[in-house]
Structure formats: C-alpha cells, structure tokens
Amino acid sequence: MFFLIFGWGPRSKDLGSGGYHDCPRCHNHVMRRRVERTNWINLFFLPVLPTNRKTVLACPICAHEEEVT
Ligand SMILES: [Zn+2]
C-alpha cells in the first residue's frame, strides 16, 4: 500500500538590508529587510515545486510589507 503525502506552504529567505525608509504604517524611520517569499508544493514534507515567488520590503517593528517590483 502506498500513500502520497503532499501539501503546500510559504517559505521565507532573508536577502539583507533594504535601506532606511519611513514606514507608511507605523511612521518610524527604520531599516527594512528584503525578504523573498516563495510558496512551495511539498511532497513527503520536502519542497519540490515553487508556485509563487515575490520579494518584499518588511518593517521590523510592525511587520508591514511592500512588494518590490
Ligand atoms: Zn512599520
């Protein structure tokens, strides 16, 4: 008998500093982090296929994110 275990979920990768900016939500002058967010399809708990990838600038205080185009 063989069971196929699959699922999906996001994974994040820190790309470093995104420079100092004024956050539009909390209005603090902060160094935002560049973060790559990727949704993966998992097979037997291992990521095998990326389905959506985007890079965002994240505020470390309020966690507000802006997508980088
Ligand atoms: Zn903020």
Describe the model.
Helices cover 0% and strands 70% of the residues. It is mainly beta. It has one domain. A four-stranded antiparallel sheet has the order 1-2-3-4, with no helix packed on it. It is elongated, with a radius of gyration of 16 Å. The model has no long low-confidence stretch (mean pLDDT 92). Bound molecules: zinc ion.
Outline:
This protein has 69 residues and is mainly β.
Strand content: over 45%
| Computed CA radius of gyration, to the nearest angstrom | 16 Å
* Largest sheet report: 4 strands, antiparallel
Number of strands: 4
What structural class should be given to the helix and strand makeup? mainly beta
Q: What kind of assembly state do the chains in view correspond to? A: single chain
Write the element-wise H/E pattern from the N-terminal end onward: EEEE
Spatial order of the strands forming the largest sheet: 1-2-3-4
Give the helix tally: 0
End-to-end separation: 47 Å
Low-confidence stretches: none
Bound molecules: zinc ion
Q: In one word, what is the shape?
A: elongated
pLDDT averaged over residues: 92
The residue fraction in helices comes out at: under 10%
The number of domains is: 1
